[in-house]
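Treating backbone geometry as a discrete language has practical consequences that deserve illustration. The sequence in question and its structure tokens are set out directly beneath this paragraph.
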Amino acid sequence: MAAIVLAVHSAAAWSLSWRTCPQPRLAVDVGMARGCAACLQDRDLPSDDLGFSTFTESSSLLTQFHLGVARQRAGDTNGALEAYDVFVRAAEEHGAPPHTFSEVLVNMGILYVQRRDRSAARKSFERALECRPLSAAHVNLALLCLAEGSAAAAAEGLQSSMPVSAVLAAKEHCLSAIALNNDERSVATAERLLQEMAQRQA
């Protein structure tokens, strides 16, 4: 039986939304990052105990976080992912509360999208939600659902249609982002996406 699809103006337009939509948050919540770093620093861990060669006696977890943000803003995708990965792994291994590094995982998801690795991006956004409910994670998952739906439609030669499941999943994430209401830019993006989806169903 043929797949159920939802007619839209152009499936490719969703890929455009994914590329051009303002990202909900580039910089991670610095207050949360400070809290995460403080949790580890309070335990008086020697740098060698962290187990990562990128840490030295003069570097801290917070410094590692700032390095990731700086690299991300400079367009160094791989370097930013490396710095964030060190931050998250150290935080996890030493028992920092998950909510203190949830937004780092959102940033990592955005970076994976830039590398066109949708699978890794989805895992990062979903891990972020497991750590703490975030509007930014939901709206990025909504955009990812639409991008994946667009790719699936294009692969089947459906230039003006998209699987209904992709649109429904995107709507659910947008509504969750709005309900959480913990990031204004993410909420605004979710509202705009819902309007666009409604217009394309009309």
